[in-house]
C-alpha cells in the first residue's frame, strides 16, 4: 500500500502540513498568527533563489536543445505544437471558470492591501526591462525568461565556445537544483505556518471554494482528455489515428497517474509510440523534448489558479488580465514546467507577475498539489498526440500498427 503512494510522498506531506495549518488557523487564530514569520522566512528563501534558478535552468535547457540544428524543422514544430496544446486548454478552462465561478462570492481577507485598479497591463514593462539590473528582480520574471531563451539560443549557435559554456551551465544547473531540493525540505513547515496565519483571519467557507475549484478542474480535465485527445489524434492520423491512439494511450495514462511524473512515463510513452506505428526516429526525437515542453495540464491548472485567486480577491478580470493569464499559462507549460522545482516556481511566477499578495501562494500550492496527478496524465497523453501531429506534418508515413502478443 505504502509503495503505491511513494510517488505522492512529497505531495501528501505538503498537503498534510497545509491541512494542519488550516485547522490551526481556524481553531487557534492567535497562535497561528505568531507563526507567520516562519512562513515568511521560507518564502524569502524561495525569492532569493528564483532569479538564478530561472536564468540558469532556462538558458541551459535552451542551449542543449539548439544542438539539434539539423533537426531545426522538427524542433520548430515541437515548439509550435506545444504552444498550441497549452493555449487551447488554458483558454478553455479560463472561460469555464469565469462562467462557473469556483469562489462563489467568497472573499479572501488579507493583511496586505490589494490594488483593484483598472486591471490594465503594461506589456512593454512586463516583457522587457530598460536595464540589465532589472533582470535581477523577481518582479521581472517574464523579461528574465525571454532573455534567458535568447541567451540559450546564442549559446547553441556559438560552436565550440558555446559547447563549453553549455557544459558549464549544465554543471551550475545541477548545483542550483540541489539547492532547490534542500529548500524544498522546508516547504511543509514554511508553507504550513504561512497558511495557518492566512487562515487565521478567514471564514470556514473558504475551504469549500477549494473543493469547487478542484472539482471544476477534474471535470474539465476528463472532458478535455476525451474530446481534446480524440481531436488531436484525428489531426495526426484521421479516424485510423484516433482508433490507434486510444488503443495504446491507456497504459501511459495509467503510468502517469501512478507515478505523477512525465519523465518517469517517458519509456512507456516510447513503447506506446512504437506500437502505434509511429516512426522510431520521430518518436525518439520528439517525445524526450515534449516531456519538457508540452504540458497542457500545467497550463490548465495555472490558468485556473489565476481566475480562482482573482475571484477570491474580488479583482476585475479584464481582457488585459485574460491575455496575460493565457501568456503566463503557456510560459508555465512551455518553460517553467520543464524546470525541476517548477511547482513552487510557478506559484511565485503568478504572484510576482500579476502583483498579487504573497499570502496567496499557499492557496495556489494547495490547488497545484491536489491536481498534480491529473495534470500529469494530460501532459503525458498529449505527448503522444503531439508526436502523431508532427509526424503527419513532416510527411512521414505511419507504419502498420504493431500488435502485441495476445491482441
UniProtKB/TrEMBL annotation:
One of its GO terms (cellular component) is plasma membrane. It comes from the Bacteria. The keyword Transmembrane applies. Its main location: membrane. Keywords: Cell membrane, Membrane, Transmembrane, Transmembrane helix, Transport. It is found in: Cell membrane. The keyword Kinase does not apply. One of its GO terms (biological process) is dicarboxylic acid transport. GO terms for molecular function: symporter activity. It is a multi-pass membrane protein. The chain crosses the membrane at residues 41-62, 74-100, 132-155, 175-197, 209-235, 297-317, 323-345. SUPFAM superfamilies: Proton glutamate symport protein. This is Sodium:dicarboxylate symporter. It comes from Shewanella denitrificans (strain OS217 / ATCC BAA-1090 / DSM 15013).
Amino acid at each position: 500500500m505504502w509503495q503505491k503512494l511513494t510517488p505522492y510522498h512529497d505531495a501528501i506531506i505538503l498537503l498534510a502540513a497545509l491541512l494542519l495549518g488550516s485547522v490551526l488557523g481556524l481553531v487557534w487564530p492567535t497562535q497561528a498568527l505568531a507563526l507567520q514569520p516562519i512562513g515568511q522566512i521560507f518564502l524569502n528563501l524561495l525569492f532569493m533563489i528564483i532569479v538564478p534558478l530561472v536564468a540558469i535552468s532556462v538558458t541551459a535547457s535552451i542551449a542543449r536543445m539548439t544542438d539539434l540544428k539539423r533537426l531545426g524543422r522538427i524542433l520548430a514544430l515541437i515548439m509550435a505544437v506545444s504552444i498550441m496544446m497549452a493555449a487551447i486548454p488554458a483558454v478553455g478552462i479560463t472561460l469555464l471558470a469565469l462562467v462557473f465561478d469556483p469562489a462563489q462570492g467568497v472573499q479572501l481577507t488579507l493583511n496586505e492591501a490589494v490594488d483593484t485598479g483598472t486591471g490594465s497591463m503594461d506589456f512593454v514593462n512586463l516583457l522587457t526591462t530598460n536595464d540589465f539590473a532589472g533582470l535581477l528582480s523577481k518582479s521581472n520574471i517574464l523579461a528574465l525568461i525571454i532573455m534567458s531563451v535568447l541567451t540559450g539560443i546564442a549559446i547553441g549557435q556559438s560552436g565550440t565556445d558555446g559547447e563549453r559554456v553549455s557544459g558549464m551551465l549544465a554543471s551550475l544547473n545541477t548545483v542550483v537544483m540541489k539547492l532547490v531540493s534542500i529548500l524544498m525540505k522546508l516547504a511543509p513547515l514554511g508553507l504550513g505556518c504561512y497558511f495557518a496565519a492566512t487562515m487565521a483571519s478567514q471564514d470556514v467557507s473558504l475551504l469549500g471554494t477549494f473543493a469547487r475549484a478542484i472539482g471544476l478542474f477534474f471535470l474539465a480535465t476528463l472532458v478535455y482528455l476525451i474530446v481534446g485527445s480524440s481531436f488531436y489524434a484525428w489531426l495526426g492520423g484521421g479516424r485510423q489515428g484516433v482508433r490507434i491512439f486510444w488503443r495504446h494511450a491507456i497504459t501511459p495514462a495509467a503510468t502517469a497517474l501512478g507515478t505523477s511524473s512525465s519523465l518517469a512515463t517517458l519509456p512507456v510513452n516510447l513503447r506506446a509510440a512504437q506500437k502505434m506505428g509511429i516512426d522510431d526516429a520521430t518518436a525518439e526525437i520528439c517525445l524526450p523534448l515534449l516531456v519538457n515542453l508540452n504540458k497542457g495540464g500545467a497550463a490548465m491548472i495555472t490558468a485556473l489558479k489565476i481566475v480562482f485567486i482573482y475571484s477570491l480577491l474580488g479583482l476585475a478580470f479584464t481582457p488585459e488580465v485574460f491575455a496575460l493569464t493565457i501568456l503566463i499559462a503557456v510560459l508555465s507549460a512551455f518553460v517553467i514546467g520543464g524546470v525541476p522545482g517548477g511547482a513552487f516556481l510557478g506559484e511565485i511566477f503568478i504572484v510576482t507577475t500579476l502583483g498579487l499578495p504573497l499570502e496567496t501562494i499557499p492557496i495556489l500550492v494547495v490547488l497545484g498539489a491536489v491536481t498534480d496527478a491529473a495534470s500529469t496524465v494530460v501532459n503525458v497523453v498529449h505527448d503522444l498526440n503531439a508526436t502523431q501531429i508532427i509526424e503527419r506534418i513532416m510527411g512521414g508515413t505511419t507504419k502498420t500498427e504493431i500488435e502485441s502478443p495476445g491482441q
